[in-house]
UniProtKB/TrEMBL annotation:
<keyword id="KW-0456">Lyase</keyword>
<keyword id="KW-1133">Transmembrane helix</keyword>
<dbReference type="InterPro" id="IPR028082">
    <property type="entry name" value="Peripla_BP_I"/>
</dbReference>
<feature type="domain" description="Receptor ligand binding region">
    <location>
        <begin position="8"/>
        <end position="299"/>
    </location>
</feature>
<dbReference type="GO" id="GO:0004016">
    <property type="term" value="F:adenylate cyclase activity"/>
</dbReference>
<dbReference type="GO" id="GO:0005886">
    <property type="term" value="C:plasma membrane"/>
</dbReference>
<dbReference type="InterPro" id="IPR050401">
    <property type="entry name" value="Cyclic_nucleotide_synthase"/>
</dbReference>
<dbReference type="Pfam" id="PF01094">
    <property type="entry name" value="ANF_receptor"/>
</dbReference>
<keyword id="KW-0472">Membrane</keyword>
<dbReference type="GO" id="GO:0007168">
    <property type="term" value="P:receptor guanylyl cyclase signaling pathway"/>
</dbReference>
<dbReference type="InterPro" id="IPR001828">
    <property type="entry name" value="ANF_lig-bd_rcpt"/>
</dbReference>
<dbReference type="GO" id="GO:0000166">
    <property type="term" value="F:nucleotide binding"/>
</dbReference>
<feature type="transmembrane region" description="Helical">
    <location>
        <begin position="378"/>
        <end position="402"/>
    </location>
</feature>
<dbReference type="GO" id="GO:0001653">
    <property type="term" value="F:peptide receptor activity"/>
</dbReference>
<keyword id="KW-0812">Transmembrane</keyword>
<dbReference type="GO" id="GO:0004383">
    <property type="term" value="F:guanylate cyclase activity"/>
</dbReference>
<keyword id="KW-0547">Nucleotide-binding</keyword>
């Protein structure tokens, strides 16, 4: 069977970067996130392609796949991504069609992305979530790199004083990392330090640094596992060969040099127990599927030189292989098998930024396509429009009537005035030009004459004249 490397004699105990995609799919499936977007750096392109393929095989939808560039490279080559609003453009382009992001890149880029989303208030209601992947082995001392940059703002002494809503932003982040070795791994590292000081290595501990202990990388465990697997497979093949013929030096040499058969024997065994403490699976391509954990924000005090925080990223879940339901299932679909998501402790739930976990899309859909307006709603709109039109017309008519009434009222207020022609000609003097006191004296002195004068005037005018001068 052909390996992923194209070499049938090749297998590896260090999981390739693409293996983390199965754990990401398991996490997404466990919480019902069927739709998500991928943002990746250029170096993670193969992982992004693998994740997209895994999503398709597991009936998940990828809304966007956006590639971003490392900030150092952007500014060095004077690219558009060097400008300050670059991350804003990326998020603005994708935010309306997604709620769950999977980020594949370095921790500094992750911090910048989270800060931009926080500044855009995307975490304010707990609707958005970011899942990041890191192939490096989890270390409590280095886990804070996902929360803030090493070069923190000046005069900031507490993580809660960092720009934005630090707690809500950090709760909106989950990180999938290579699991920390079990405590038994410490005994192995002690043996490594001991044997590296002997022949043929002679790595002596410097006499001036007795208080420090040499750091043993996880790669030492990968190397140890590979040698152990080779020895186990060779021993198994020699025992099988011994049943057919004696184990001469030539036979042993032939079996030991048959790399294809040895690798196939290792693969057929499916799993091995790593010196790091975990049970690891090997797929049909000879790739170790690794052992991954999920980090989330937990309340735990952290302090360094001039900085402290009451939160840290801590493992809350891990992934384990699914047990085959039938004996015949052991050799079927091994490459596409998704590990099972398991919370590390009972009740060790993730502290979500909102009241519950974010959804992969709004209840009515990204474009309100799941909440179409029915006929009742349309009829209500029509009735409301008709009523508004009736009220408008009634207002116009009311205003017209009111204006007409005001005009008539003003006209009626002018009826007390007497036309000089109606009372002129009875005397040589014009009464209308006389002051009011003269008019009153005239009426009082000559009542009979006034009565005869008024009798010749039409009744409405005479009545008005009498009312005025009485």
């Amino acid at each position: 069977m052909q390996r992923s490397s194209g070499i049938p004699t090749f297998a590896r105990t260090e999981p390739p970067d693409t293996q983390v995609t199965k754990s990401i799919i398991s996490l997404l499936t466990y919480y019902g996130w069927r739709k998500f977007s991928i943002i990746h750096e250029q170096l993670w392109k193969n992982v992004a392609t693998s994740l997209e393929a895994q999503a398709t095989r597991n009936n998940l939808s990828v809304n966007h796949v956006e590639m971003v560039f490392d900030n150092y490279k952007c500014c060095q080559e004077d690219m558009d991504c060097c400008r300050s609003g670059y991350w804003y453009t990326v998020i603005q382009k994708t935010m309306n069609r997604t709620r769950i992001y999977v980020f594949l890149g370095n921790s500094n880029q992750l911090v910048d992305m989270m800060a931009t989303m926080d500044g855009m208030q995307l975490f304010a209601k707990g609707e958005y979530l970011v899942i990041s992947a890191d192939m490096m082995t989890y270390s409590p001392k280095l886990s804070n790199k996902y929360l803030w940059r090493v070069e923190k703002p000046p005069n900031v002494r507490n993580c809660l004083d960092l720009p934005g809503d630090f707690e809500r932003r950090s709760k909106s982040l989950l990180v999938v990392v290579a699991s920390e070795p079990l405590p038994t791994f410490e005994a192995f590292t002690h043996k490594v330090r001991e044997y590296t000081q002997k022949e043929p290595f002679f790595f002596k501990q410097p006499s001036l640094f007795h208080q420090f202990v040499k750091y043993v990388s996880i790669y030492a465990a990968y190397l140890y596992d590979s040698v152990k697997l080779y020895a186990w497979a060779l021993d198994k093949l020699l025992k099988e060969e011994e049943q057919h013929r004696p184990l001469t030096s030539d036979v042993i040499r032939d079996v030991a040099s048959n790399g294809t058969k040895i690798i196939q024997t290792i693969i057929n065994n499916r799993t091995y127990h790593s010196v790091a403490g975990a049970t690891i699976k090997i797929d049909d391509y000879g790739d170790s599927e690794g052992n991954f954990s999920v980090l989330a924000l937990k309340r735990e005090f952290y302090e360094e030189a001039n900085f402290s925080c009451v939160f840290q990223m801590r493992p809350v879940a891990h992934f384990q292989m699914r047990q085959p339901q039938h004996l015949n299932d052991t050799n079927q679909h091994r490459n596409d098998e998704i590990p099972e998501f398991k919370l590390s402790k009972v009740g060790n739930a993730i502290d979500w930024p909102g009241s519950d976990r974010p959804m992969d899309e709004p209840s009515c859909g990204f474009m309100n396509e799941h909440c179409m307006k029915d006929d009742t709603h349309i009829m209500s709109m029509v009735v409301a429009g008709v009523l508004a039109l009736i009220l408008f017309c009634a207002g116009v008519i009311t205003m017209s009537i009111y204006r007409k009434w005001k005009i008539e009222l003003e006209i009626e207020g002018l009826l007390w005035k007497i036309d000089p022609g109606d009372i002129k000609g009875y005397f040589n003097t014009e009464i209308v030009s006389s002051p009011s006191k003269v008019g009153i004296f005239f009426v009082g002195a000559f009542p009979g004459m006034m009565e005869r004068a008024c009798s010749s005037i039409p009744f409405p005018r005479a009545l008005q004249l009498v009312n005025i001068y009485v």
